[in-house]
Amino acid sequence: MSSPSAGSSPLAAYGWDTTLEYEFTSHRAAGLIPARVAAVDRGLCDVVAETGPLRASAGPVPASSTDEPAVAPCTGDWAALRPDGPDGRPAVAALLPRRTAIVRSSASRDSRGQVLAANVDTVAIAVSLAARLDLGRVERLLALAWESGARPVVVLTKSDQIPDAAEAEAQAAAAAPGADVVACSAATGDGVDAVRAVLTGTVVLIGPSGAGKSTLGNALLGEQVLATGAVREQDGKGRHTTVRRELLPLPGGGVLIDTPGLRGVGLFEASEGLERTFADVEALAARCRFGDCEHRTEPGCAVLAAVENGTLPRRRLDSYRKLLRENEWAASRTDARLRAERDNRWKTIRKAQRQMYRERGRDR
């Protein structure tokens, strides 16, 4: 039986294409079916298959690389389903290689990252204008987004809450070189079309609780699908009305992933993301007299000169240093874990060798 073409598959609305169809060839030959993970919840996941939505078992599965440990499915993953799993329901048997992945430091702050969403094309960073504009948080989320391989867009929500959003847009643009910055109000509809125009492919909404992600998501979806909640007036924070990540098709094409509010976002091996986020600082650093300049007291430091003449805000340099330190700490934790895992593998091998030699000695 011939497999359906990518264009004719019901999964095309969720991003299925000819490349994915090719990557799935061996899975089809093994009797597996393609599906996209819409939500994951306590060992089970909601998926969209060619036949429609299904509930499937979602235990850890082998990674695409044999050098990696088993991975758990997450929203946005493309999965190969076994129609008749061991518990009688479909089961995720394998995951296709992730084109992009948004990874943050895990909540336990250990050396492994937590994948927030996979196979994302655009990261919409929601920032509420009803509260003080936290440019440091914007830079942190931008680093996360750039590192994922997706394209970040800063969406300034609740623009109806301030007299003029132009100044806020200018401030955000200065902190987001290379990224689109758009202001909108989902309540009035102002700017929503402009937001819609810059969001392409699979779009994930990220940001803190109260940033208006779900309200914006409903405006993009054209109906009240996502739960929304009130925001406290004193600090502009809201409750977690989105309790899990879920994936929904957009009416004009593409897919939307709404995520729970992020209280804390730790960086996880985001060197490239930081370079993109602070491209202006990196460009200045390339002109420093010393190649290992730390931009503190060194003579001929182009970064410090820019701070002194006002072309680079001191706040931005401080944010750059802070996030670099955090990223270096996360990388050192990962290096330590990898060394420990390597040492444990060698201990296991040596133990097996000693056991083999002892058994050979007894056989003589």
From TrEMBL:
* Listed EC numbers: 3.6.1.-
Enzyme class, top EC level, equals: hydrolase
Output the InterPro entries linked to this UniProt entry: G_CP_dom, P-loop_NTPase, Ribosome_biogen_GTPase_RsgA, RsgA_GTPase_dom
Q: How many cofactors are bound and how?
A: Binds 1 zinc ion per subunit.
Residues annotated as binding GTP are: 157-160, 207-215
Cofactor(s) needed, names only, are: Zn(2+)
GO process terms (BP): ribosomal small subunit biogenesis
Q: What's the protein here called?
A: Small ribosomal subunit biogenesis GTPase RsgA
Lineage, opening ranks: Bacteria, Bacillati, Actinomycetota, Actinomycetes, Streptosporangiales
